[in-house]
Amino acid sequence: MSTYLLVAVAMFAFAANSILCRLALAEGSIDAGSFTLIRIVSGAITLALLLLLNRSGTKANFPGFKFSLMAGSTLFAYAILFSFAYIQLAAGTGALLLFGAVQLSLLVMHWWQGERFLRLEIIGIGCSVAGFVWLMLPSATRPDLFSAVLMMLSGVSWALFTALGKKVASPSSGITWGFISASAIGLFFTPWLVNDIALTTKGVLLAIASGTVASALGYILWYRVLKNLSLLQASISQLSVPVITLVIGSALLGESLSMHSVLTSSVILGGIALVFLARSLEATKETK
């Protein structure tokens, strides 16, 4: 399966996760702490079972305590901060803050590693970011400061979790132990996270679906494909998530697509295509 197709599937998983979170948290079907814990623990169980079934969960594939702790910490921080921030923020505001933090963090890491930006990449970045802001800004409102900080920290945590994925030798083992570590951290902090428990059957099922399918399987695919991406490509490709979320929302939830959404989505996807095309053209020049 090509890298581009794998990236697309991973982005669909991220978009599905966004919708599941919205259905669970925005409608009050479950509290943020319980949702996060169920999501992470169910994901850890799913990945551990898959690792055992593939008979690859051996000591040789263990990514190491340091990696597991770092991956678990960043994953847990992303999930819990996102859940609590999401409750108080409008969808457009939350997306702008989250993806803005992710983009800035990964672009800085890309530059810090000594990577240069090609001219076509800069144009692509400008188009995709401008299109994203154009898409989300109309639904954005002035955010609560504390919730805004939580969402931005969530974005930074996800960026760090993404960067770690480029360093792990075995994506399956790395993501599994990251989830196990995140589960341990979450269970330790349970008394402080679930003071106001609000559980419904719908909320629990949505959290399990988010953990087992959209998170566990989506993230393991993301870790696999990261080996073939630069941090710039990993960063910009994630701007497609709001676009895919709009399409899924229209198809499954009956939400209408406006001309504004179609135009801005086209600008975003065009910018992403330019970023990926830039490296391909550069590689072609070097082989001549």
**DSSP strand tally:** 0
Percentage of residues assigned to helices: over 70%
Domains counted in the coordinates: how many?
1
Instruction: Determine the N-to-C terminus distance.
Output: 27 Å
**Strand percentage, roughly?**
under 5%
Structural class: mainly alpha
Order of helices and strands: HHHHHHHHHHHH
Low-confidence stretches: none
Oligomer: single chain
Number of helices: 12
Biggest sheet statistics: none
Mean pLDDT: 87
Could you tell me the radius of gyration in angstroms? 19 Å
- Structural shape: globular
Membrane topology: Multi-pass membrane protein
Pfam families: EamA (PF00892)
Main location: membrane
Subcellular location: Membrane
Kindly describe this structure.
- Its main location: membrane.
- It is a multi-pass membrane protein.
- This protein is mainly α.
- It has one domain (3-287).
- 78% of the residues lie in helices and 0% in strands.
- It is built from twelve helices and no strands.
- The protein has helices at residues 3-26, 32-53, 65-88, 91-112, 119-136, 145-165, 171-188, 190-193, 201-225, 231-237, 241-252, 259-287.
- It is globular, with a radius of gyration of 19 Å.
